[in-house]
Records
---
Amino acid sequence: MAGQTQFDFFDVDHTIIRGSSGPLFLVKGVQRGLFPVLTLAYIPFFFFQYSVGSLNAHSRDWHFSLLTGQSRQALEEVSRANFEKLKDLIYPAARSLIEQLKAAGRRVVLATSSLDLIVRPLAEHLGIKEVIATSLEFESDRCTGRLAEGPLLKEKKREKVYDFIRAHGGQWQDCAFYSDSINDISLLESVADPVAVNPDLRLRRVARKRGWRILKFR
């Protein structure tokens, strides 16, 4: 029933942490010899596409050749090593807010477009048990280079969050969502308490126009 379960969904990059988790993971993989050095050249182009909203959230054709054939164990080891850097990027204000929400009995969930294997160590560190994120496809514990269900972007991310809410007996009016990005506008519009955290220029304009809360974590 509405009102019995309260959910706080958090984006990760630029919301809980300074910067983006994906590039850090790739850099760590290059340092450990798992990915080729050329990988670093693609990072700016990919994230420029994300920032302008040109990535296709519904495509099942995404393929990352550098991940093809990599074992789950090797990728998780890179993720754990990467977390030593990632944890230093957590905004103290974000950590404090999450602790306050949990202490108040609210259910805090990560909802991010980043890979689940990258953000799960972060979730465990913050005491967050549930993660909604993009997942890699594995066959016999080897990565195919594809995403299991495509990238969790825009409407796809909203759909996954809604599926989670329904599966746990909630409704949109029970929920808050914290994000920095205009890419999450459909999800922000759906919840009862949309919160713009370190918002990009487009999201800041929308948040101000609609009277949404705006938080600045430093």
Note: The chain has a mean pLDDT of 89.
---
Amino acid sequence: MSHYYSKEQNDVESNPSFYNFNFKGLELKFKTDNGVFSKDYIDYGSFALLKAFEPNNIDLPVLDMGSGYGPIGITLSRLYNKEVYMCEINERAYNLSLENIITNKANCKAFNSDLYEKVEGLTFSSILTNPPIRAGKDIVFKIYDEAYRHLVTNGELWVVIQKKQGAPSSKDHIEELFGNCEIVNRDRGYYILKAKKED
């Protein structure tokens, strides 16, 4: 059986659907399908991350790591008039994100990428992730480790993760990596974590 964080979804029958997402005065429309994460509506973790996120003043693109069909990256691009790069391993979710970028007139570049593979050598002002917990702790921690390399000085990593799915250990790992990690918000069991790259 395929999982939403794997590359191909050939054994999952396609059944596309749509939903509207209204956020801070924005009206967005997303196409989704079977075999992608949170296909019926934006998941609450991603919603909590969008509510908490505050862009910095660094004039570089934002990266949405594990972007799915695009709800975080596209919303941020439209809301803050930012260029957003989006990396997603799931081919079906990636293809949906290409359609959703056009539908919502977002300034986004999407990559069918195994973690940071397709953005190697690039740096970002902020990296946001709702990490794929079911992919395992090694993958989740690799997202944090590689984020440090892909952030400019004073760039920020933003993470949403449930307490019961490892928020405390994620906070400890990020704090060891960055030298700091703030709990920005707690929202229905989700922790919003933020770390700044200071050198």
Note: The first strand starts at residue 17 and ends at 23.
